[in-house]
Amino acid sequence: MSLDPSFVGRTYPPTPSYEVGREKIREFAAAVGAVHPAHTDPDAARALGHPDVVAPPTFPIVLTMEAGAQIIDDPALGIDYSRVVHGDQRFSYTRPVYAGDRLTCVCSVEDISSRGGHDFVTTRTEVATVDGEAVVTVWSKLVVRGEG
Amino acid sequence: MEIGERLAPHTFRVTRADLVRYAGASGDFNPIHWSDRVATKVGLPGVIAHGMYTMALAAQAVLDWAGDPAAVVEYGVRFTKPVVVPDDDEGTEVTVSAVVKGFTDSGHAQLDITAMCGGDKVLGQARAVVRVG
């Protein structure tokens, strides 16, 4: 089954705001082996010119994976999640994510293609503060494996 | 730093406990990352690491070298092979290395990253743009 290419360009409503907590950053940093004190100690972060502790670079996935469910679970698009494999992932940062940020995600379908019996969906998520300051753009390419 | 400079390889040991911890921290509770029963049912050799976990480890290798936890400006990878993590105390090993390929107009370093596990290249087209100096 091929996915409907007319979904390309479709944009979903902004997600409810997510407040980035110091302890969430600490937990994520510990899980990925990020030991720099700027992830856990506000004074160490400020000494480097940051307003608060800094999230590791892949931290935005915590928000964007949940936000992307708008697309993956959209019954009109009809993705079979049990066949989904993560193909590519990319982050482009305007600035780092800090504790205290209140972030919202706007997801869109950037590309849909089919090759070799598999469907490929590229989602794009604009992560910004609730005040509209751009923070990071996140792309995920999902492979929906064919039934062959 | 100059073009062609290589970052010293970092080796990360990855065990089941690491995957459980990453699942909790990231919110990705897909059972292929903790249940052999589910992983084998979908055709995998066993429990595999989250691709995003491998991506995060590779970022750490680069950031340790850059010395600034906020240095990454761009970062992208392709997940080419799964990192299979056996249910024992040793787990498996992922080795990350990188080479400086060039510099952007803003003076940021462009790195090509290699992540290997058991002879397989587990990340493809892994590239980062990192603020330096």
Automatic annotation (TrEMBL), chain A:
GO terms for biological process: fatty acid biosynthetic process. One of its GO terms (molecular function) is (3R)-hydroxyacyl-[acyl-carrier-protein] dehydratase activity. It comes from the Bacteria. CDD domains: R_hydratase_like. InterPro entries: FAS1-like_DH_region, HadA-like, HotDog_dom_sf, UPF0336/Enoyl-CoA_hydratase. Residues 6-137 form the FAS1-like dehydratase domain. Pfam families: FAS1_DH_region (PF13452). Belongs to the UPF0336 family. This is UPF0336 protein Pfl04_24350. Gene3D superfamilies: Hotdog Thioesterase.
From TrEMBL, chain B:
GO terms for cellular component: fatty acid synthase complex. GO terms for biological process: fatty acid biosynthetic process. This is MaoC family dehydratase. GO terms for molecular function: fatty acid synthase activity. Belongs to the enoyl-CoA hydratase/isomerase family. Residues 10-103 form the MaoC-like domain. SUPFAM superfamilies: Thioesterase/thiol ester dehydrase-isomerase (SSF54637). It comes from the Bacteria. PANTHER family: (3R)-HYDROXYACYL-ACP DEHYDRATASE SUBUNIT HADB, 3-HYDROXYACYL-THIOESTER DEHYDRATASE HTDX-RELATED. It comes from Planosporangium flavigriseum. CDD domains: SAV4209_like.
